[in-house]
Design brief:
Number of helices: 2
Mean pLDDT: 78
Helix content: under 10%
Structural class: mainly beta
CATH class of the largest domain: Mainly Beta
Order of helices and strands: HHEEEEEEEEEEEEE
Largest sheet: 5 strands, antiparallel
Shape: elongated
Number of strands: 13
Distance between the termini: 104 Å
Strand content: 35-45%
Length: 190
């Protein structure tokens, strides 16, 4: 009996290592998800911007996230496809990744099986604020006046305007218009 037990132990020791687990024989798994990571910094000084809101749009429905103390963010387990990245923070101009100006379209980020990871650096410019009072021809404040900030556009010898923000004079008969970039290129209308 002792001889049989030794023989079974010997056969087990020789045969079992020759068989590998199914995990070891599996083909490499196809990448079916990807990541977008990056950093948000101030355009004027390069310091990281914490708590900037980062949103992506694309084939995955992903909740917005906020940057950490180093201005970093990470979206993981994304469905393969095209994504646009949008970053906003109070006091800064909302920025689409790859855009030079706020009105420019975003640069699409391709997440593919061959290229499942993308890294981005987004620079946010400080926004300007416009405030004032709207007066009638007698110098009295006008209540509930609609005020807009417009961007002056010149093209083919023509001058036009694109509305960037709209507000109404408030309880103090004044108005704030925020989130304007490049204040020297704006005009107001009431």
């Amino acid at each position: 009996m002792r001889h049989v037990a030794s023989w079974i132990l010997f056969v087990s020791a020789v045969v079992l290592p020759a068989h590998s687990s199914p995990r070891d024989n599996a083909l490499p798994q196809q990448a079916n998800s990807g990541t977008i990571r990056g950093r948000v910094i101030a355009a004027d000084g390069g310091e990281p911007l914490r708590n900037a809101r980062v949103t992506i749009s694309g084939p995955s429905s992903v909740p917005r996230i906020f940057t950490d103390g180093d201005g970093r963010f990470l979206f993981s387990n994304l469905t393969l496809g095209r994504y646009a990245l949008l970053v906003s923070k109070a006091g800064y101009v909302q920025t689409r990744f790859g855009s030079r100006k706020p009105a420019d379209p975003p640069m699409w980020i391709e997440i593919t099986a061959e290229s499942p990871a993308f890294s981005a650096e987004v620079r946010l410019s400080r926004s300007a604020a416009i405030s004032g009072r709207i007066l009638d021809d007698l110098g009295n404040p006008i209540e509930l006046a609609q005020v807009s900030a417009e961007r002056v556009i010149r093209s083919d010898g023509r001058v036009g305007a694109m509305t960037m923000a709209i507000t109404t004079t408030g309880p103090r008969l004044s108005f704030p218009v925020s989130r304007c970039a490049e204040p020297r290129r704006r005009r107001g209308r009431a």
